[in-house]
Amino acid sequence: MDDLMPDQDLNRDQIIRLLSADGVHEKEQIFSRACEIKKVHTGEKIVVRGLIELSNICRKNCLYCGVRKENHSVHRYEIPDAEVLEVVKKAMEEGYTSLVIQSGERTDQVFIHRIERLLRKIQVMTGHGMRITLSCGEQSPETYRRWADSGAHRYLLRIETTNRDLFRSIHPRDGSHLYDSRIRALQDLKEAGYLVGTGVMIGLPGQTIEDLANDLLFIKDFSIDMVGMGPYIEHEKTPLFAERDRLWPAEKRLEKSLLMIAVLRLLMKNINIASSTALDVLSPKGRAMAFHAGANVLMPNITPVRYREDYLIYQGKPVLLEATELITRISSELPDGSRIDLADWGDSRRSSMPAFC
Ligand code: SAM
Ligand code: SF4
């Protein structure tokens, strides 16, 4: 396995071989190499970003997502500004310096203004001490610029899969869920000056190891700053649930998700890689395992508990776990020497390098 982990770039065949690793010893070797590289290139700190699920109102109908527009059994909500500010104030008092504001996708002016206003209020309230990541879907270049001007630093928009046929098969064919639009949006985000994050779902029906290798190469070529990727988890009130017999078993989805994190760390040594919440659905220690495989970002949910049941993008999502409880638990399960650091903004070393690096 050592010859598969050279210091120089891995090629596609090598990536496929690493992602196909099956033996316990082989996988352990890959995880421990990724973990070593993480320590050298990003340090011992685990960066924390508090996640606020602002609203589940969405104009889209992604076939995998529990809050898709046509799931009429979902109670729709929007957390009012005052309540969001209370959450931010509490987070600040607890030492958080980085937040993610996530929402269903809306492109109406009311929503665009609302996000703009909210970002400005948060920046004023925190004395510009809070790094804000947005994850509010595909928007126009102008909207991205306005939100950046109002105080958003980073933007997370997953490509979901780089296999165009697979992308088509998990989205409705209605002209508003297009692969090319997603690519365009990622480019627009870069041009608007964001630190851009993307990611994919792992274990989609029909997805292959070759697809996953291509996903990693896409992420590398796109020169992404942070990555949030995790297993696909089914939701019975979505059209993709009908394909559940084609899914890899939970254990394999977990294993491939961890290998994706590890191989990405071998490919991109200094970027931010999140340990996704969905990992905990497949194993009680799923998120902790990701830190042993090369992840360096934890995103505890700090949304008020009463909204969380309504942001059920997949079944089994942990909705009752308090952020402090999660941090305590994960802290005791980290690799030796690693520690959680709320005070670090978590700008990846890549993002602080001069543009020519
Ligand atoms: N609406 C925004 C968007 O789509 O970018 C942000 C919120 S959306 C819920 C965030 C991510 O959730 C998506 O990019 C998708 O990868 C993930 N997601 C949705 N349904 C999922 C599922 N069933 N299993 C795993 N991840 C899922
Ligand atoms: Fe809406 Fe995002 Fe879910 Fe798609 S993944 S339905 S855009 S919340």
Structure characterization notes:
With 357 residues, this protein is an alpha/beta fold. The protein has one domain (10-341): TIM Barrel (Alpha-Beta Barrel), CATH 3.20.20. It is built from 13 helices and twelve strands. The protein has helices at residues 12-19, 24-42, 81-93, 109-125, 141-149, 164-169, 179-191, 209-221, 250-267, 279-282, 286-291, 305-308, 323-331; strands spanning 45-48, 50-55, 98-103, 131-135, 154-156, 195-198, 201-202, 226-227, 230-231, 272-275, 297-298, 339-341. The strands form two sheets. A ten-stranded parallel beta sheet has the order 2-3-4-5-6-8-10-11-1-12. Strands 7-9 form a two-stranded parallel sheet. Strand 3 (98-103), helix 4 (109-125) and strand 4 form a beta-alpha-beta unit. Helix 2 (24-42) crosses helix 9 and helix 8 packs parallel to helix 9 (250-267). The longest helix is centred in the N-terminal third of the chain and has 19 residues, at 24-42.
What structural keywords apply?
TIM Barrel; binds S-adenosylmethionine; 12 strands; alpha/beta; ten-stranded parallel β-sheet; globular; binds iron/sulfur cluster; 13 helices; disordered C terminus; 12% strand; 357 residues; two-stranded parallel ribbon
